[in-house]
Each structure stands twice: as structure tokens, then as C-alpha cells.
Task: structure prediction
Amino acid sequence: MPGVAARKNQERKRENAMEQPAADDYAKERYGVLPLIQSQDKPDRVLVRVKDLTGEKADEVVWVRGRVHTSRAKGKNIFLKMVFEWVCTNCILHILLRIKENICQFQIYVISLAEPRLPLQLDDAIRPEVDGEEEGRATVNQDTRLDNRVIDLRTCTSQAVFRLQSGICQLFRETLIQKGFVEIQTPKIISAASEGGANVFTVSYFKSNAYLAQSPQLYKQMCICADFDKVFCIGPVFRAEDSNTHRHLTEFVGLDIEMAFNYHYHEVVDEIADTMVQIFKGLQERFQTEIQTVSKQFPCEPFKFLEPTLRLEFPEALAMLREAGVEMGDEDDLSTPSEKLLGRLVKEKYDTDFYILDKYPLAVRPFYTMPDPKNPKTSNSYDMFMRGEEILSGAQRVHDPQLLTERAMHHGIDLEKIKAYIDSFRFGAPPHAGGGIGLERVTMLYLGLSNVRQTSMFPRDPKRLTP
Amino acid sequence: MPGVAARKNQERKRENAMEQPAADDYAKERYGVLPLIQSQDKPDRVLVRVKDLTGEKADEVVWVRGRVHTSRAKGKNIFLKMVFEWVCTNCILHILLRIKENICQFQIYVISLAEPRLPLQLDDAIRPEVDGEEEGRATVNQDTRLDNRVIDLRTCTSQAVFRLQSGICQLFRETLIQKGFVEIQTPKIISAASEGGANVFTVSYFKSNAYLAQSPQLYKQMCICADFDKVFCIGPVFRAEDSNTHRHLTEFVGLDIEMAFNYHYHEVVDEIADTMVQIFKGLQERFQTEIQTVSKQFPCEPFKFLEPTLRLEFPEALAMLREAGVEMGDEDDLSTPSEKLLGRLVKEKYDTDFYILDKYPLAVRPFYTMPDPKNPKTSNSYDMFMRGEEILSGAQRVHDPQLLTERAMHHGIDLEKIKAYIDSFRFGAPPHAGGGIGLERVTMLYLGLSNVRQTSMFPRDPKRLTP
Result:
């Protein structure tokens, strides 16, 4: 019978893992190692999670499942720390106990053993960095965390970060479905690199080659041309960029929106901005515990925003930066340091961590960006910023095939490669605009964290593909 | 100024596109082609969508945006068909009208022109196939539809299919979030092909190679080991399988669940089955219009299910099939025809289109499947079926590194390649189970459609990578 040898072996291992109880151990009937749970039985016994132990259960006799975290042993479960010195940290236990100040009744069984040596200590992993520096106590560096992500994700900080990230997705969708948007699923394997072929990953596709989509934009736009009117999607986005910065990943999660409008792309900008505001408000209301937990390890100012969202035009931003001593041409894009400085200036002047920068120079935006009809050097495009870093880039798209062809030629793009894209607009296309939001960046900046790898469960960058 | 030449050109084209109005055209001030909408203005004028025109608006003067579908011109907007014979089908219009039986007031402007010849006719695209055969009237074949997906997606049938699909995702998440699950995001680019390397797409990753994930399973399991307890994700899944069938795609959307349990994997099976039931009920309640619309073109019996879900064990299914004349060994897997036959037999006997088949032979399941402790030839694994086709495959997973190693060796898998996977369980892992659901299959089978390409917006198979 498969598994028998392994289980025997394992039980032996378990016995060895426990130190021999003292000869005068009065409790030896009350603990042990259970056989591997292979769904042998369906006992009636209710099993409570440690986190669900509340005052209401005082004086009840309950069975509890918990993991041994010496770092968490305090208050009413201090006894665990004492009794279980023979059990290695990170094992999983079933415990029968009466929750009272003087515990007089308990049974404890191991259901999953951990290796005796952990590659990182949870105590160290949740220590604020400033403590570490001041007191010389250990913290855990990022590569050690990421190499041992399963353990690092057990910290209360990681749990809070990713529960809040789940909340961002939920609020994004709730808000958009409420607004009448339809969720779409767009393909990630594509036949041609739509924006000219730079920074794209190549896939072997049977006997030929394909590419990984750098964004769902073309497909969102096709849905608009197919009269879906308002669409969104959440999915992976791939960028073969050799950027080793705090905010670039080669694979990240895009929250994407596209919407037909009646007269002016600001109709779309307002919907996107309101969606962000609903996310910020929802996080404040529903995820206060998570926000507080993260701020214990990574202290930061609460995230501030205005309602309605502040919208600045590019020339206004330029003037603020120039006044602060930055030298820039009218048609230059913002550098990362300029973006951060602008964030600080906007915060001082308007007291908000979130704003829209509208009307970028046409020259710095992609070929499909709609030119501003009133100013030849300007475009109907916008970025959105959180704490001075870009989290969304968007625009009114050119929906006329002839103008699109002209703009592509102006950018020196091979028309043959984007033929399918241009052809999508030949059978009647409504004016539309949209944008793509980086989920990991939103999570990072909302919580005031400093590296996007803290907000990607299993980050991918030019140097990291594991775990 | 960019765009000027193109716009001029385009307006000329638009003028040519319209047939010359007759000399005695009394309404010539009331129609025309508007300049390209580049967000020039923000008029106060409210613009209603055609689908939102209701009786409440009778006798009001409203501006409407609509697309010219001659196929849809009936009842109160029959006049469009007559007046607009000079405008090509699929243009987008702004129309001022008073909704009354005798329309006496209107203005009509084109805001987006379509090419005069459409590659497929919407009338043909929504015709039930049986009509086509009986009456000799045209229908549209699948490749023509998929080659011109933007137009095909405009049919009321396609709109209904994909709005319902959006609803499936929404109901799946709503139910799981309600049950305390956390949404996770798992990487699609992975460093090693976890299940041995068959059917996996290779990606060029900077100077080395990587792979596209065949499922998020490893990452879901790592989240369970990291104490997230109950997780789900929705995302693309890649299979480099050269299968050209009605139900295989090389890229599809997986709805994935993984959950720690207390004593028995049926705790998880029950949660998954209940999630499916909540989806079926939600679709019935919220998407009745869509279901009716699709059934006009593709007639089918309403989807039936039981509450709680029927769970059969493999030997029971085997007995039913043998009684129906199928020859099968005790440890054989079900063939596709056997699955379909079983679906019919179960429907006859239990009157349900949805059921669980539990306790598959160990020999036909992957190495990480937990063996049944009471029967060496059986495993703690299950499939779920809709209308006789598999939509979910799942199991209790082996959470003990030693047993996992033994099982992998039994399957002849190179341990070096799955080291990271096995190591995930070395620091305490709770017993857990899960499964993956194919979104396109659920949509197809719920609606009684016959090809998964009808329920994938932009399907990918060995022969199709476009659009």
C-alpha cells in the first residue's frame, strides 16, 4: 500500500524530533504525534482556529488548530511556549484546552512537523528596520525573505499586505460592476508584438513563435468596438525590460479599464478617478486592521486623497517644478525624481497623495494617443500618481483608422505589424479612453512601502524567477 | 497640426460614403457627418443609449447614440431603416428624436463611419443553425466569426454569452469572499515545468529560458503552507497540447481554489460544490435575459442541479457504465465518450446536470494526489461534471514531503526538478485540497453550447493565435 513506508518513516522522524519527556512527566497521555491526515475519518469535533479564540469561548472546552510561533506566545497562550519547547517552531498542532486563567485541562497533538531549523526567524522578519539599526537586532534581508517566501508570508505583516491586496481587487471590481462595466478575459499569448516589438517576451508556439502581451489594450479596445461600452480586466502583464528598480517587475498584475464616451475623455478620467477613490475609502473602512498591522513594521503617514480628485494640467506641473529649480523643456517627459518632487509639491499645496496629471506632451506618448485638437503639441492623455509615483497611464485612443495610420507612420512603426490593430476600427468605433493600473504599485504606495517586491507574492524581475 | 490632413481626408471619405440626397430632400439641415470626436467640447446634452430607450421617455425629446443594425430595425425605430439607407450598416450615429408613433422631429449625425462592406452579416450571425439548414438561409461559420471577432461580438448572442461569463466570475468571487477566502495573484512565468515538462510552453527569459505555468497549483499550495487557509485565483492557464477538439484551448481561464481542512477532504469538496451551486443559482436569478437570448439561437434544456450536489464514487459510476455495455477495467480512467454517456445515465437516474465523481483510481491521477488510506488502489481525488463533461479536476494533495518524494519516484519524476515544490512542505503544512475550474467550459456547458471557442472571446488553439 503506497504511503505506508513513508508514514512509518515519518512517525519515527517525529518521535526523534521530540526531546524525551522527563521521567516524571505527568501529562504523557495528553500529547503525541497524530498519523498523517489522509482523510481517514470525519469526526464531529469542531476545530477552532487560534485567531478565532475570543472571550466568548471563555470556560468552554475547545479543540484548537494552531501553528507554534514562539513570537506570538503571549497572554492566555503563554503556556504553549513553556510546554512546547520540545516541539519545533512552525509545527501545526491540534490542542484541546479550556480557556481560563488557570488552564487545568489540555491535550496536544502534532499534525504536521516542521524541520528543526528555519531559514529565517519570524521574530526577525517582523522587526521594524529602525529597531534593528538602533539596537543591533537582526532583521531579514529581502532576498532571504523571497527565497523562503512560504515562511515570510506567515508574518502578520505579509498576511496583512496580501489580504489588503485582495481587497483592492475586490473594491475595484465591485465599483466597476456597480457602474455597469463588464469584466472581460483577454489572451496573453499574442501573434504580434503590437507596439513595435521592444521589451516583449518570445514564446515557442508549436512550430512557430508568439509573444506575451505587454498589456490587454488592443483587446479592451476591440471590446469597445464590439459595443461592450465599458469593460475592465484583471490579469498578468509582461514586460521584458531589464530594469532592476524598486518599482519594476517583469510580470505584474494589471487592473485595466476601457470605456466609450459621449463627447469628452474626461468622462472616462472621472470614472477612473472615482474608482480609485472608492478603493481608498473601502480600504479605510474594511481593512483598518491590516493597515495598522503593516504600519507597526513600516510606519507611514495615512494615505490622503481629495473628492473629487485633483486634476492638474501638464504646464501647471511644469511651472511648479521650474519654480522649485528643475530645468525642463515644454515637451520633455517627467523623470522619476521629478515625479517624486512634484508629488511632494502637490502634497504641500493641495494636501493630497493622489492626483491626476492631464494633457501630456504628444511627443512623449504612444502613437495611438489622441492629439489635442486645440494644441498641436499636446495630447488627450493622463497619468495618475500615488505618493509621487505613477500608478496609471491612460489616454483617449485614436479611433479613426486613417488618423491612426498617420500617427503610426509619424512614429516610424511598421504598418504591416499593426494592421490587425488598425483594422479593428474600420467598422465603426465609438470614441473611447482608458488606462492600466499596476496592482503591486497601488498596494505598495497605499501602505507607504518602499519596494514592489513586498507587494508581489512571488515577484519576477530580470534576476528572480523563483520560487 | 497632426490629424488635420487625416481628418479632412476622412470627411471627404464620409461625404463620398453617403449617396447624394435627392434634390427634393426637405431634411438636409437635419443630418450630416460630425468631425472626429477629439474631446473638443463638453456639451451639456445628455446622450441616451438605444438599449436604454424605454416607454418612460415617450414624448420626450432625446439625443440617442446607436449603431445602425438593419437587422435590429423594428417597431419604434423602423424609421431608421428607411431613412438611413444611404448610411452603411455598423456606422455609429447621434440622433435627436421624439419617441412617438409619428415621428415629426429628428436630426441625425454620423460620428463614426464603417467600411461599406462587412465581412459578415449580423442577420446571418444570429440565425439558428437549424433554420439555415431548413430554409437554405446563410449562417456564419466559426472561422469567419473568429477572424472578424469584433463584428461577431456585436450580435445579441455574443453579448449575452460574455455578459453571463462576466457574471460567472463575479458569482465565483462573491461566494468565496463570503466564505472567507482570500484572492491571490500567482506568477505565470515559472523557472521549472513542475509536472515533468510535458505540454509546457517555453519562454525566452533574458539570457535563459523559462516556462508558462500550466496551473497555479504550486502557488496556491504555497499560500496554504503560508497559513492563508483558504485561497482562490482567476487567471490564464497555458497548455502546449496539440489537441484540436471542441473543448481544448492552449490558453484558458482557470478559476482555482485551494483550502486547508480539519479532518477530511470532503470539507473542501463541499465548499467547491456549494460555490458551483451558488453560481448556478446566481445565473438563474441575475442573467435570465442573457440565458433566454442565447437559447433563441442555440436552443437547449435549462441547466438542472441538486442541492446538496450529488456525489458518486468511482466504482458506482463504473457499475452504471458496465450495465450500459461499456467495457472498462477497475483502474481505467474514463474516456470522453464514457464521460458523456455517464452524464446521460446520471441525468436519467438523478435528474441533475451537475455532479461530483469521487475516489478516482490512484493510478490515473498525478503524483501529488493523496492515496486513500483505506484502499491502496484508490485516491482522495474527484472531478466535477456539467452536462457530462469535466469542468473541474481536484484532490487532496500530499502535504508530507516524505510521502510526496515517494509518490514522485513511483511516477518516475526527476526529483531535482520538483525540489522547490517538495521543499515547500518542510516547515509545517496543514492537510489541504483544491481544484481548478475551466471558465470557458462552465460557460459553454451551462448554456448548452457545443464549442469552447464560442465562450472564449479571443480563443487560442494550436492553429489560431489571432486576432
Remarks:
- Chain A has a mean pLDDT of 88.
- The longest helix of chain A spans residues 156-178.
- Chain A is about 35% helix and 20% strand.
